[in-house]
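Incident review: delayed structure delivery

Summary: a single-chain prediction request sat in the queue longer than the usual turnaround. Root cause was a stuck worker, restarted by the on-call engineer. No data loss occurred. The affected request and its eventual output are reproduced below so the record is complete for anyone auditing the incident later.

Affected input:
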Amino acid sequence: MHKNTSPNRKEILKELIKSLHKGDDPEAVKDKFKKMLEGASSVEIAMAEEELINEGMPREEIHQLCEVHLAVFRESLEREKPIAPKGHPIHILMEEHQIILQFASELKDIVKKLRDASGIDSESLEQLKHITEHFKESESHYVREENVLFPYLEKHGVKQPPAIMWMEHNQIREVKKSLYKLVDEHESLDFKNFTQQLEEVAFSLAELLMNHFPKENSILFPTSLKIFTEEEWKEIRQQFDELGYCRFTPEGARIQSEEIEAPAFEPEVKGKIAFETGALTREELERILDTLPVDITFVDDEDKVRYFNQSEERIFPRTKAVIGRSVQLCHPQKSIHIVNKIVEDFRNGRRDVAAFWIDLMGKFVHIRYFPVKDKDGKYLGTLEVTQNITDIKELKGQKRLLDDESV
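Output delivered after worker restart:
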């Protein structure tokens, strides 16, 4: 037995499960379960449940208690007093926690319905697909935490808790992938097998969420509120808006970033060129541009060539002599009318990309043109991007970062 699991608590769990098995009212069991939960962590409950399964208790009966656990946990979340005002990033995340748990509850309701069915009806299938879409949408919730909240915590020296939370996010993602795969392949599976697998996924997902959300609500979020400045919260909210929200994020939380006074970006960084998203030395910037696996050329709003990078394996030759040259003089006479049409369309907002691809001495070359505009939409020029995609075209399947043994 896990050293942190109370023997008495385990026996109470057993009794609760047995009473559910006999057909006792779940509401009555829920009240007993609430009392048992006092002083017990979600991790401890999960460990006790796993121990009972190892001792031979049918997993399906444990799952019945999980439904009660989920109901109790959702009620406790709903009773929680807001720790941040509406529209605040923390308030948004906590509201999303409640909604995601509701989806987990609905998923278990579908499983419960399918237990006694002989096949999946169209209504249940539609509900299942609907919930699956919501879980896909919930990815935005985790992305905002990982790409905005966690980096700010790390800046303040809080590094280990975000790392643990990110690891748990990935565990949740793996279970969600199993759900998506099951729903996509339901027609090829025996109904009984499908239902059993769906129950396992629903149980695992609910348990993971119930173990994960309390850590964020009671530790990570209060810590953030203590150490972040008002200026930082404005920045965080603005970046939340930039990344976007789930379709189910409460509308009341979506105060547009224009309504929040935008923080002033550091105008100058000593020895570096400051951008809205960071700062680089001139050498860093030039080397980055030359390291890109593409050839880029910029033509200004007067149709003059103003810049090209010097990538290691340039496809079309460029020399410094072309700087200041009219772009029309850089193309054969027979294609000038096409160049003029593309530039004019960019200038007038009639298109936002022009793409071509050609075979060039054994290379498959992709050439794209993009209009470059300022924040107000004013045309600044055209960017040409050329790439050898011969090897890219041959890629199949997938190769993940962890698959690269040379790293």
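Verification: Residues 191-227 form the longest helix (37 residues).
Action items: add queue-age alerting; document worker restart procedure.
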